[in-house]
């Protein structure tokens, strides 16, 4: 499939040049895993919701339509490795609707939050990254992400965000064998031996229905 040249700097692949450089080779390449999550927003103006937020057209955007704080929630069906949140913000067009401070929370659910990171923005234009790796710069494994717009420029009430993408490594640092003992999915053992086939064994682990919820 050919890439639309007009999207190289703004749309679905525009975030690539803005990934921070301190990514270890074992975590590369980072992939857009946004479609693996179920997305919800705290509020939205009619016609300016999740579909617009996930669109590749930067002329479209999510606009909140309710009391602050404005939030976006992502829920994954299985424990997922995440490394960065990418935001397309457009102060030139959105002015007081543009977030000036965003906080990311990670956890198993809203009752089990183990990571927070807040970042401020000064009249941002284009793609911005928020690092959600751990202190050792390793991807974190989560079921749940909350994006909270804490403040807008000029104390604006509602917010505009034109794109949000969540990035994760192509391959997890947690080996398929270890995932079984750290709360990752597992199911009936297949008839043939998968130990020598890492990709098939990883798929087997990910199909599990049992979660031990251990970290």
UniProtKB/TrEMBL annotation:
PROSITE patterns: DOC. Keywords: Cell cycle, Cell division, Mitosis, Ubl conjugation pathway. It comes from the Eukaryota. Transmembrane segments: none annotated. One of its GO terms (cellular component) is anaphase-promoting complex. GO terms for biological process: anaphase-promoting complex-dependent catabolic process; cell division; protein K11-linked ubiquitination. This is Anaphase-promoting complex subunit 10. Residues 9-193 form the DOC domain. The keyword Cell division applies. Belongs to the APC10 family. The keyword Cell cycle applies. It holds the Pfam family ANAPC10.
């Amino acid at each position: 499939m050919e890439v639309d040249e007009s999207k190289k700097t703004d749309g679905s692949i525009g975030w690539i040049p803005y990934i921070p450089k301190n990514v270890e080779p074992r975590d590369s390449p980072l992939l857009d895993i946004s479609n693996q999550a179920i997305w919800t927003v705290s509020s939205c103006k009619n016609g300016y919701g999740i579909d617009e937020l996930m669109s590749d057209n930067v002329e479209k955007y999510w606009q909140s339509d309710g009391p602050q704080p404005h939030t976006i929630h992502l829920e994954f069906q299985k424990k997922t490795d995440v490394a960065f949140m990418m935001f397309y913000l457009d102060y030139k067009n959105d002015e007081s609707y543009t977030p000036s401070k965003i906080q990311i929370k990670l956890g198993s659910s809203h009752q089990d939050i183990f990571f927070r990171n807040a970042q401020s923005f000064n009249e941002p234009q284009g793609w911005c990254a928020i690092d959600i790796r751990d202190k050792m710069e390793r991807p974190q494994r989560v079921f749940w992400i909350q994006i909270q717009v804490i403040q807008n420029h000029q104390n604006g009430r509602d917010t505009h965000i034109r794109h949000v993408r969540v990035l994760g490594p192509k391959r997890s640092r947690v080996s398929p064998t270890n995932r079984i003992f750290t709360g990752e999915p597992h199911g009936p053992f297949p008839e043939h031996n998968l130990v020598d086939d890492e990709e098939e064994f990883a798929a087997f682990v990910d199909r599990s229905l049992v979660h031990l919820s251990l970290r």
